[in-house]
C-alpha cells in the first residue's frame, strides 16, 4: 500500500502505515517513525491539544500542526507537510514533497484510509 497507493502518485517523499497498538506495518525505505513519535501521534488523535501545542514529530522532523481531529492530523514544514490519518487499527503517515498540492495529497491519503476502514483495518 505504501508504494502503490502513496509513493507512486508522485505526491509523497515518504510514507508508513503504523499499527495503533505500536509497530510499523509498512514504510518507505529510510523513513523510521520512532516509538516515542508514534506514541505521541497516537495520543494526538485522542487529545488534539497535545499536537496543537508541540507539533507533530515524524522521523526526527517537527511539523507545525495545521489541523487535528480524532481522524486526521495535518502538519507543515516549509513547503512540505505531513498527513496522518487514523483507521480502525492503523495510522497512515505520508510526507508530501515541497511543490506538491496539499489538497491532492490529502485526498489520496484519506481515500486509502477509507479503503482500509472498509476492509476492517
How would you describe the overall organization of this protein?
The chain has 121 residues and is α+β, with helices and mostly antiparallel strands. The chain has one domain (2-118): Dynein light chain 2a, cytoplasmic (Beta-Lactamase), CATH 3.30.450. Helix content is 34%, strand content 36%. It has a 7-stranded antiparallel β-sheet with strand order 2-1-7-6-5-4-3, with helices on both faces. Strand 6 and strand 7 form a beta hairpin. Helix 2 (35-46) crosses helix 3. The model has no long low-confidence stretch (mean pLDDT 94).
Number of helices: 4
- Supply the CATH superfamily name: Dynein light chain 2a, cytoplasmic
Strand content: 35-45%
Strand order of the largest sheet: 2-1-7-6-5-4-3
Q: State the share of residues found in helices, binned by percent.
A: 25-40%
Number of domains: 1
The CATH class name reads Alpha Beta
Largest sheet: 7 strands, antiparallel
Number of strands: 7
Could you say which structural class the secondary elements and strand pairing correspond to?
A: alpha+beta
Main location: cytoplasm
Organism: Melampsora larici-populina (strain 98AG31 / pathotype 3-4-7)
Family: Belongs to the profilin family.
Keywords: Actin-binding, Cytoplasm, Cytoskeleton
Structure in a nutshell:
This protein is of the alpha+beta class and 121 residues long.
Observed structural traits:
121 residues; alpha+beta; Beta-Lactamase; seven-stranded antiparallel sheet; 7 strands
Architecture blueprint of SSEs:
Layout lengths: L1 H5 L5 E8 L4 E4 L7 H12 L1 H7 L1 E3 L2 E8 L3 E6 L2 E7 L3 E7 L5 H17 L3
Antiparallel strand pairs: 1-2, 1-7, 3-4, 4-5, 5-6, 6-7
